[in-house]
Design brief:
The chain has about 375 residues and is mainly α. Among the domains are: about 90-150, no CATH class; about 225-375, no CATH class. Helix content is about 60%, strand content about 5%. β1 and β2 form a beta hairpin. The protein is elongated and about 75 Å long. The relative contact order is 0.09. Pfam families: RETICULATA-like.
Length: about 375
Amino acid sequence: MAFTFFSTKLSTPYYYLTVPSSPHTLNSLVSQPFPTFNCLLNLPLHHHSPYHGSRTLLARSRNGGSPVRTGGGGGGGGRGGGDGRGGGDEDGAFHNRREALMVLTKLRRPVETLPKDLAAAIEAGKIPGSVVERFLELEKQLIFRWLLQFGGFAERLLGDDLFLAKVAMECGVGIFTKTAAEWERRRDNFAKELDFVFADVVMALIADFMLVWLPAPTVSLRRPLAISAGTLSKFFYGCPDNAFQVALAGTSYSLLQRVGAIVRNGAKLFAVGTGASLVGTALTNLLINARKVFDKSFAVDGEEVPVLSTSAAYGTYMSVSSNLRYQVLAGVIEQRILEPWLHNHKLVLSAICFAFRTGNTFLGSLLWVDFVRWIGIQRTRER
């Protein structure tokens, strides 16, 4: 039997085996005892090895189960599987798994040293080698190594290595752009409507993080759903986080699933917007009442912001306007246009993303002021 061995730690051996396509030799190898394998790659032992160029991969579980053929190649290996999925899915998973394991082998990185969710995704063939390479690159930096321990951050950083920079962009320019937009719309009434301005800025800052988080393209590392999960849960589980994001190799999304991403994020953003507005308007009303005590003239002009109606309006605005704008920004403009174009120029890419996100934030502030005036929650005050 032909195999080679390497280990980065004595207690965790790794055996890499290539099996020829010849059924006679395959049967003779399968019938022989061999060590328990953590992972097996379709790699030749030597260029002069009699097994060089074989296309069949065998795998054996940790508990010593029988070898299982998981994929075929040019020799006419079988397709499909017993899980009911089409051949395309299984082929995609096989190639993803092979790519990922080849990357780890090249860098002599044991699978056991990876986070459990990432290791499970590799084993399931959900992620290609490029994602593993991105993880290993991000892991070199302390801040990213810490964030990669958390599933939500790991999914987003693997989907977009500039995710953290975009969070900083949104929150960093939030106060300036929101305040500038309020001034643009209110002008001479800015000082008189300072209570409205304060409420809008507070609501926006609370929501800024979630507006980057929810529509961000991701690499799914989620665990499989329980068999008892309902139909709706199963449907949304299969939806992408961004309706327009590029699907990884071996993965595809239907039109219905992409629409489902918009609906799901819209529901989440409605809850976020409503909650943020409740906090912001409640604080504003406290400020207004405090000013009335010390400034009687302000008591005439000032009026309490309607908490419930403003909160519901902001939740609706975020679920529709903000949801669509940020999905298009992250999934179309950034991932599908700017990223392929400027992939090797991260500084330029970051600068252009900053410009687009700043403009989007300012536009959102203008639309919010128009929206609340249109539905009658806020009125223009007379001079």
